[in-house]
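Entry:
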Amino acid sequence: MAVGQEAIRRIPMFASLGAEDLARVAAVTRERHYARGELIIMEGDHGGALYYVQSGLVKVFKLSPDGKEQVLRLISAGYTFNDVPALDGGPNPANVAALEPSTIYMIGREELRRLIRERPAVAEGVIAALALALRHLVGLVEDLSFRHVTARVARILLEQEQALAEGRQARRLTQQEMAAMAGTAREVVGRALKELEAAGAISARQGRVLIINQERLRLLAGGGSGLGTGG
C-alpha cells in the first residue's frame, strides 16, 4: 500500500524535506499491517530496509540457543527501527515482532542512502536515531549488570506508565513480557512485584498493577532500596 507525503513528513529524519523529496520517499515506502505476536523481522536475514512504527508497539528481542527471550527495546509509534542494517547492508541483528496490532512503514536502503548523501538534514536525523538506540542499549547493559531485578521491574513499570499516558502504548505488559525485558523468569518478576507492593510503591490486584507512589517507585528503580530479588 502506498503512503502519502504528509505521513512521510511525520518521520523525524524526513521532517525537513521539500515536497519533491517527500514525494520520492513516499513512492518507495510501503505500508504493512501486523497482528499481535506476528514476526516483522527475523534475526540474521538480509533486507536492509528502514522501518517506522506508524501505530502500535513492537519489541526488538534476541533468543538464546535454549529459547530464552531477552527484549532489547520496545518501539512505539513515532520511532524507527532496523536502522543499522538499512545503512550497512548487513544481517538483521535481532528479531522484531508486534506486541500490539501495528502499522509499519518500510523504506528501502538505497533510497535512504541517497537521501543521506544529498540531504544533510536526513543524515543528522539518522545520527540522532542511532544515538538514541545506542543510549538505550548502554542503559540496558547497565541495568542487567548493576541493578537487581526489583529495580529493573520498577523501571519497566515507570516507562510503561509514561508510554500509556502519552498514548504510545495501548495495553499493559504481561509478567512474561516484563520478565523478557528484565532478563529473568516470570516467577522472579512476580516476587519483585510483591516486594514493590510491600514497599508501598504499587498495588497489584487480579493481575493488574497500579502505581500508587511514583516517587517511591522512582527511588526503588534507582537500585538503592536494599530490596534484593535475585535474577
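The chain has a mean pLDDT of 87.
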